[in-house]
Amino acid sequence: MGTLYVVGTPIGNLEDITLRAIRVLREVNLIAAEDTRRARTLLTRYDIHVPLVSYFEHSSTDKREAILSALEQGDVALVSEAGMPGLSDPGYDLIGEAIGRGIPVVPVPGPSALVSALVVSGLPTDSFIYAGFLPRRKGERQQTLRTLQHEHRTLVFYEAPHRLLNSLRDMLDVLHDRRIAVARELTKLHEEVFRGALSEAIAHFEQAGVRGEFTLVVQGAGSATQPAYDADGILALGQQLMNGGLSARDAAAEVARRTGWNRRDVYHGLHQMMKMTRLE
């Protein structure tokens, strides 16, 4: 019986691969890849000539059985489209089936967008929750966010570019205006990490456009020792809304919705600011 090697591969830069991963990919009898085109690019770069088969989300049961049968004859490497197999990709099913049949499963650690984004986010890394991709539908997405609203640990999500702005807006509505790091195209030519408040992230990507693959790292409810808005920022936001035509009462309500600050406290601050302005 062979071994199923779960091999981490680059998330962008092809230099981000370990010597062990290269050796294992050269020595196995078969490589099962989520995306054979990307896998061939990597294998060509490192002069690896091993039979390659596809194993993706909609692969048939017969395809999985064929790979499991190959494991009866020798070693197989499982590679994701990028990063570590088994994290939000179909490799999870194959790994689970191999374990159930008593086939040895060995990790060959490599890059991960999750960990890479987390460590450069500037948010707490001592404890976090990986929540995968948020649901596609708005109602389901907001419901998922509500279950995480009071979670004290840092939150990490993956998101597709065409859903990024909708997800950020729902986060603002449900989680309020807490801090976020939006990591885009990590290790690639156009790598970017935006850090700021959720409202600022929305404004940034509305203007800059949305391209690439995204990992979102969001401040937990219990880590709000550095709020996205301090008192001066709250008043500035309220003033901006009033300049746009809102009354002080309506501006206070909107500021409270966006930031999580107490509406009465915001209104009192705006009222005091207006009084001082009149005195001047």
Major sheet summary line: 5 strands, parallel
Number of strands: 10
Number of helices: 11
Strand order of the largest sheet: 3-2-4-1-5
Number of domains: 3
Low-confidence stretches: none
**CATH architecture verdict of the largest domain:** 2-Layer Sandwich
Helix content: 40-55%
Report the C-alpha radius of gyration, rounded: 24 Å
Q: Can you identify the CATH superfamily of the largest domain?
A: Tetrapyrrole methylase, C-terminal domain
Instruction: Give the SSE string.
Output: EHEHEHEHEHEHEHEEHEHHH
Strand content: 15-25%
Assembly state (oligomeric)? single chain
C-alpha geometry: elongated
Structure description:
This protein has 280 residues and is an alpha/beta fold. The chain has three domains: 4-111, Cobalt-precorrin-4 Transmethylase, domain 1 (3-Layer(aba) Sandwich); 114-223, 2-Layer Sandwich (Methyltransferase, Cobalt-precorrin-4 Transmethylase, Domain 2); 231-279. Helix content is 45%, strand content 17%. The strands form two sheets. The protein has a five-stranded parallel sheet, with helices on both faces. Strands 6-7-10-8-9 form a five-stranded mixed sheet. It is elongated, with a radius of gyration of 24 Å. The termini are far apart. The mean pLDDT is 90.
Provide keyphrases for this structure:
five-stranded parallel β-sheet, alpha/beta, 11 helices, five-stranded mixed β-sheet, Methyltransferase, Cobalt-precorrin-4 Transmethylase, Domain 2, 3 domains, Cobalt-precorrin-4 Transmethylase, domain 1, 280 residues
What's the SSE blueprint?
Elements: E1 4-7, H1 19-27, E2 30-33, H2 36-45, E3 52-54, H3 61-73, E4 76-79, H4 91-100, E5 105-108, H5 113-120, E6 128-133, H6 138-147, E7 154-159, H7 164-175, E8 179-184, E9 192-197, H8 198-208, E10 214-218, H9 231-243, H10 248-259, H11 263-279
Parallel strand pairs: 1-4, 1-5, 2-3, 2-4, 6-7
Antiparallel strand pairs: 7-10, 8-9, 8-10
Helix pairs in contact: 6-7, 7-8, 9-10, 9-11, 10-11
